[in-house]
């Protein structure tokens, strides 16, 4: 769920150009037909982000622990925020910033995360708690796990990888700081990892692209087009690697959505997108999101999209 969303967007169909671009990426990826994992064949009414009927519960200490496999990277006791990849590889010399949405401890710091911050065009909460599955598996746990897997895959290709946080702070960081981390790193690409919290029956993933925004500290004019390229490639390869279909409730089945109300995008000066990997409130999507093997596929899809973008 986008961490700086306070007003849910009205679902709308994207231009045919976006669908064509996504289809082109799919075809170039040697076939990426959905196998029913995302339910994209039917368009259902709904909305994204914080649109669940009630606020998500805090992480439950008694909730079932998602399955683990050896594919899951293990964070060290004192993880490093920035880690250089190997000296050589197809992504050598490239810097990628991964932004794991939310923080598992945000629910313990409601005063701090409710503080308003400037996102250029308006003010928003510093951060939010994110959503969770009905069994209590928190979005913030999911995003950090996928981000660790993604980091490993990108480092194996020689990229320098920076995480906006790595379970190394009590809450946040705030949305404006998340944007600054990518900007200060002069990142070649930034991806913010999320999972949605929508109604049952709303399934599939979507990639959020920055709208053209100018106001205050926000000016996305230089990043709109490269971000669209990045997002389109991620969407196409996410389909191929995970088997999930594009969202059936956001983006008109293109897997792409454009937003102008997210500070993490508005304040970015480098190419950046969000990805909502699935809907945590739908039982079928939740079964995927809590599967370690599927999370590895999700990380692979994002990594392949980033690599495709950076390699041109």
Biggest pleated-sheet summary: 7 strands, mixed
Overall shape: globular
- The termini sit apart by 29 Å
The overall strand count is 11
**Quaternary structure:** single chain
Identify the strand order in the major beta sheet. 1-5-2-6-11-7-10
Tell me the Rg in angstroms.
17 Å
Class of secondary structure makeup: alpha/beta
Q: Strand-and-helix sequence, N→C? A: HEEHEEHEHEEEEHEHEHH
Low-confidence stretches: 3-21, 23-86
- Residue fraction in strands: 15-25%
Fraction in helix:
25-40%
Number of helices: 8
Question: What is the mean predicted local confidence, pLDDT?
Answer: 81
Secondary structure topology:
Blueprint: H1 16-28, E1 82-83, E2 95-100, H2 110-113, E3 116-118, E4 123-125, H3 139-155, E5 160-163, H4 175-184, E6 189-196, E7 206-210, E8 214-215, E9 218-219, H5 224-242, E10 256-259, H6 263-266, E11 272-279, H7 283-289, H8 292-310
Parallel strand pairs: 2-5, 2-6, 6-11, 7-10
Antiparallel strand pairs: 1-5, 3-4, 7-11, 8-9
């Amino acid at each position: 769920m986008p961490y700086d969303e306070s007003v849910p967007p009205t679902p709308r169909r994207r231009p045919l150009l976006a669908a064509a671009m996504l289809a082109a990426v799919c075809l170039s990826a040697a076939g990426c037909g959905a196998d029913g994992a995302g339910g994209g064949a039917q368009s259902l009414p709904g909305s994204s982000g914080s649109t669940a009927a009630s606020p998500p519960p805090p992480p439950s200490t008694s909730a079932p622990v998602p399955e683990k496999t050896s594919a899951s990277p293990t964070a060290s006791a004192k993880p490093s925020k920035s880690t250089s990849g190997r000296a050589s590889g197809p992504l050598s010399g490239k810097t990628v910033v991964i932004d794991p949405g939310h923080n598992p401890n945000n629910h313990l710091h409601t005063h701090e995360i409710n503080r308003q911050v400037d996102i250029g065009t308006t003010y928003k909460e510093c951060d939010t708690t994110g959503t969770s599955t009905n069994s209590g598996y928190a979005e913030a746990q999911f995003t950090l796990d996928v981000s660790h897997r993604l980091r490993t895959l990108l480092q194996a290709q020689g990229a320098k990888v920076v995480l906006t946080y790595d379970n190394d702070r009590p809450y946040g960081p705030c949305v404006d700081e998340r944007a600054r981390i990518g900007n200060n790193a002069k990142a070649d690409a930034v991806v913010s990892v999320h999972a949605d919290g929508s109604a049952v029956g709303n399934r599939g993933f979507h990639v959020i692209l920055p709208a053209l925004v100018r106001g205050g500290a926000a000016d996305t004019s230089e990043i709109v087009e490269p971000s669209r390229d990045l997002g389109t490639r991620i969407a196409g390869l996410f389909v191929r690697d995970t088997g999930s279909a594009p969202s059936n409730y956001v983006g008109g089945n293109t897997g792409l959505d454009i937003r102008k109300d997210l500070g993490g995008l508005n304040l970015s000066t480098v190419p950046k997108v969000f990805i909502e990997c699935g809907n945590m409130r739908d039982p079928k999507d939740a079964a995927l999101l809590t599967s370690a093997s599927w999370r590895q596929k999700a990380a692979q899809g994002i990594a392949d999209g980033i690599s495709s973008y950076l390699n041109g």
